[in-house]
Amino acid sequence: MHNRLWRNRIKSLAMLAVPIVFIACQQAQQQSTGPAWIDYSCDNGALLQLQFDPQQQTASMMYQSQRYSLQQMRTASGFGYQNDYWQLQGKGNSLLVQSPNAKAMHCSANS
Prior knowledge:
Strand content: 35-45%
Mean pLDDT: 84
Number of strands: 8
Largest sheet: 8 strands, antiparallel, barrel
Order of helices and strands: HEEEEEEEE
Strand order of the largest sheet: 1-2-3-4-5-6-7-8
Helix content: 25-40%
């Protein structure tokens, strides 16, 4: 009888552990993948990728094999991000990318 009681307790604990492990795995997967990267094609033939993190109010940009971190900036409408070199302004699928040393790029999100 004592053994049966222990087996029932172990079964109960095992049944509780399965959902906990499942939820933990889902959360770990979400954290490891992070927000999706969005591909953009620009009028000068350039390709870039953006990843937005609304909670941190930041965006990451991959351009010419370099990763740039940008901080969210206030805009009248749409979205905007900048750092010391880059400024991004967009609305919907359209994006304007500017830097002091280059011609502005007009980009569109790829479907």
